Amino acid sequence: MSYSSDFSHAVTDSEGFWQDVSKQVDWLTAPQTVRRVNEDGLAEWFPDGWVNTSHLALDRHVDSGRGDQVALIYDSPVTGVIERWTYQRLLEDVARFAGLLSSLGVEQGDRVIIYLPMVPEAAIAMLACARIGAIHSVVFGGFAAKELASRIDDATPKVLLTASCGIEFDQVIPYLPLVNLACDSAEHKVSHRVVLQRDRLRAELRDHDLDWVAAVSQAAPKHFVPLPSGHPLYILYTSGTTGKPKGVVRDHGGHAAALIQSMERTYGAVAGDVFWAASDVGWVVGHSYIVYAPLLSGCTTVLFEGKPVRTPDAGTFWRVIQAHGVNIFFTAPTAFRAIRKEDPEGLLLGNYDLSALKRVFVAGERTDPATYHWLSERLEKPVIDHWWQTETGWPVTGVPQGYGDALPIKVGSAGVVLAGFEVLVVDEALKPCAPYETGAVVLKLPLPPGCLPTVWRDHQRLVSAYLEDYPGFYHTGDGGYFDDEGYLFIMGRTDDVINVAGHRLSTGEMEEIVAGHASVAECAVVGILDPDKGQVPLGLLVLKDGDGHSVSVITSDLVQQVRQDIGAFANFKRVVVVERLPKTRSGKILRKTIRQIADGLSPVVPPTIDDPLILEEVTEVLRRAGIGEVSRQSNG
Fold first, then answer.
1. Average pLDDT for the chain
2. How far is Cα of residue 259 from the mean position of the Cα atoms in its chain?
3. Within 13 A of 293's CA, how many CA atoms are on the CB side?
4. Nearest to residue 67, comparing CAs of 44, 90, 93?
5. Band of the pLDDT at 239, cuts 50, 70, 90?
6. Where are the domains of the chain?
7. What is the pLDDT of residue 240?
8. Residue 69 CB burial class (10 angstroms; 0-12, 13-18, ≥19)
9. Cβ–Cβ under 8 Å, residues 4 and 405
10. Looking at the domain covering 3-306+386-480, what would its CATH class be?
11. What is the pLDDT of residues 104-156, one digit of tens each?
12. How far apart are CA 427 and CA 266, in angstroms?
């Protein structure tokens, strides 16, 4: 099978393509209908099929003789614990926890909120919900009480699962004060709370709280429940422009089909491979490629509780890869930039044997060429950028590794469009852009299986947020361009395009230049208000540890390089050095928030921010540099 033939099949005969894919799913009742397209142009996939994701991930592997294979490895450098679950053990634990949920009155269609750190119990709880047809909603452990309360009110869960604390490399984060405040302030009242007590901090439980271990010990195992293909598997909240989070819904059948084929075709994974996605179960990567896809495909998945640095050092990723024989590794580019900052020459790599590693995937934000070259030159393994979103659930573009015809990797590109998607780059009139012409990236409807079928309790919000701007297409909100060989280059969110004296310029292109400087470990470029030119670019730099070059020399270098590579009209003249860049917990730089601060506006701080103190540091640096003073005056 070749990529070109697979892609052509998906375009010319979409239903036939997905019917073939669906045969990889162990249906309880095989579907006779591939899809039904509704009035919005969205599809219901395999609507008459019956399935259960927990059965697909666990029971069928045990039944086929894979029960003794390791299914899940828990590696926690913050606690010093490494533990393994075989498929048989994981099935037993999931079935017992499903029994606990049933004993608490959780039935098919009920919601369960999971507010946990990166511990095995999080994956067990997710699979247990799937087992009985409950709909889980994982909320990142440590989220602010206000944000947790908003999700409680939107999802109206019957049960909330949490822990006494989360553990970072330098602190313990108590969860119960946040959970108590959220539960008290939410209008919806949760019927039961189950609390995992951790050794680092044991919490004081309320009268009706259940101790996790004690409650599970008294539960009886529960068999999986047959479910319609379209039954919701989970709700995953993503920040919306209105301030109210959008609950992205995923189904059982289409989701399973999409993930199984993506593991094989995009990642080149086969049953028995050790697959490690260094993310968090609170994010879509954690849902798709820590918990579900590896287990659906019979792989071993690694669940890591730690950071790329300071747990204990910048070699922790290499240690995990060696210790567990990781074959396929997936993380965000920001993780490697953090490693590069602390170990610029990659010296710690020499302490570990990475011979089991076949390839590395990066996603979550654009991989700048400097980071790509630093990583690929030291690892001497394929480093593959790919692009997708919470809403799509699996990759839209990439350089697929599961075909006979190996496609080349292009530095700076997110790869080619993967089989099942149709992607266009269009201008404001919905006219396709020529190669290398930047425009809005849109996906042709109907979307393939695995993509969101709706927004929880608010389908119209899906329509207004994603479908109205470009009729017949899903609007990704990202801008980019295709080259003449069909490789897509994502240059950032469409609102990160800046207008300098009438010139529309990509901050992503400038960041690529800035990141290539030998002194720069990490950077962000944003457009800030200017009374003469409308907007001008501002560069925020994190310098490599021990770099001896002066800021003035670095600034001069960068100004000259941008002038040379883009032109004088880019007006790149201002640079500030910061210790850290403000990011979300998934590693995305908060460019919009930085821009608002620099423009003298009150910033909208997203609930996904990793560390609010970093934002304060950046605000102070900008204030001292006098950035935003004119804007602050004009804004009143």
1. 94
2. 15
3. 33
4. 90
5. low
6. 3-306+386-480, 501-628
7. 55
8. middle
9. yes
10. alpha beta
11. 999 999 999 999 999 999 999 999 999 999 999 999 888 888 889 999 999 99
12. 29
Nearest to residue 333, comparing CAs of 581, 510, 514, 587?
Answer: 587
Question: Which segments of 544-601 are extended strands (E)?
Answer: 574-577
Per-residue confidence at 305, pLDDT binned at 50, 70, 90? very high
Spell out the long-range contacts of 610-616 with Cβ–Cβ below 8 A and sequence spacing 24 or more: 610/582, 610/583, 610/584, 610/585, 611/580, 611/582, 614/580, 614/581, 614/582, 614/583, 615/582, 615/590
pTM of the model: 0.89
Contact present, 138 and 114 (Cβ < 8 Å): yes
Residues facing 160 on adjacent strands: 113, 193
DSSP string, 373-400: HHHHHHH-S-EEE-B--TTT-S-SEE--
What's the residue count for the chain?
Answer: 636
The string of pLDDT tens digits covering residues 217-229 is 999 999 999 999 9
Same fold, 3-306+386-480 and 501-628: no
The whole-number average pLDDT for the span 89-98 is 98
The mean per-residue pLDDT over the stretch 538-563 comes to: 94
The pLDDT assigned to 405 comes to 85
Q: What does the CA dihedral 293, 226, 110, 284 come to, rounded to 10 degrees?
A: 10
Higher local confidence (pLDDT), 587 or 233: 233
Residue 367: its pLDDT value, please? 87
Q: Supply angle C-alpha 268, 269, 273, rounded to 5.
A: 145
The secondary structure of 411-474, three-state, reads: CCCCCEECCCCCEEEECCCCCECCCCCCEEEEEECCCCCCCCCCECCCHHHHHHHHHCCCCCEE
- The CA distances from residue 635 to 166, 602, 628, 629, in Å, are 41, 10, 10, 10
More confident residue, 508 or 319: 319
Q: Indicate the CATH number for domain 501-628.
A: 3.30.300.30
